[in-house]
Amino acid sequence: MNLLEKDNALSLARLRDVLIRLEDTIIFALIERAQFALNACTYQPGVYEYNDGYKGSFLGYFLHEMEKVHSRVRRYTSPDEYPFTSPLPAPILPTLDFPPTLHPNHINVNSDIMDRYLQDIVPKICAPGDDLNYGSSATRDVECLQALSKRIHYGKFIAESKFQDPAQQQTYIQLIRAKDRDGIMELLTNRTVEAALLRRLRRKAMIYGHDITEKGDIILEDEGSTPTQQKIPADVVVDLYERFVIPLTKEVEVEYLLKRLDGWQDPSATTSS
Length: 273
Ligand SMILES: C=C(O[C@@H]1C=C(C(=O)O)C=C[C@H]1O)C(=O)O
Hints:
Chorismate_mutase_AroQ_euk, phenylalanine biosynthesis, globular, binds the ligand C=C(O[C@@H]1C=C(C(=O)O)C=C[C@H]1O)C(=O)O, 9 helices, Chorismate_II_sf, EC 5.4.99.5, aromatic amino acid biosynthesis
């Protein structure tokens, strides 16, 4: 979605279409990472010496170097992009005039994303062991992390869209003023959308994650496909969304809404004469 556009920027349907497209990005990024072994040494701090005194992991070093270049070309001035590392240099390009779609906030859940990715995701999609392809596996790790980060932080746009719905705004205002996290979570939750998403995701993962024979047949798990024919198990992708991506997206929505009234004047409030 072009965030420089001003019209219809917060249409919930358009935002949901972005999340649907990001499903493809995430599935293919996971498939690319799954080509390589776990390469656990790339996640352990202190395994390599770095000329600038950096003491973290190979992935951390690679990610920070990548983000420094991306920061220089103003990637993180976009309201849908959030870095994992700091400090980052100022952009060499003039900042773009994004419409003020989101309420000012400093929400960044990338440390949670990194923890869950390393603990819960990589070990399930990669073969154990070390294939020495450290640069390749780290490159795919960065692509997975960036895609997951974009998807989860899109929760801010979704939350703003829901807040601006006239039919729900006063209810959100009451819940926010009461600091009612559970009430906000319940109001923003759409179980129908979530269930449809998981059904669609399983179909995508089964099709994208399998080779297609010359005849055009797709060999699926329940048709006796062997692990070598599965680029990534559909169950892993569905479980990733159900236990991590969706819950963390909703946490971002709740955190965003809890701060939505900071410095905000309710236009519907009657001014006392
Ligand atoms: C993103 C939305 O908000 C919530 C989070 C969802 C998700 O992370 O996929 C789906 C539905 C909602 O429970 C939405 O309403 O589309």
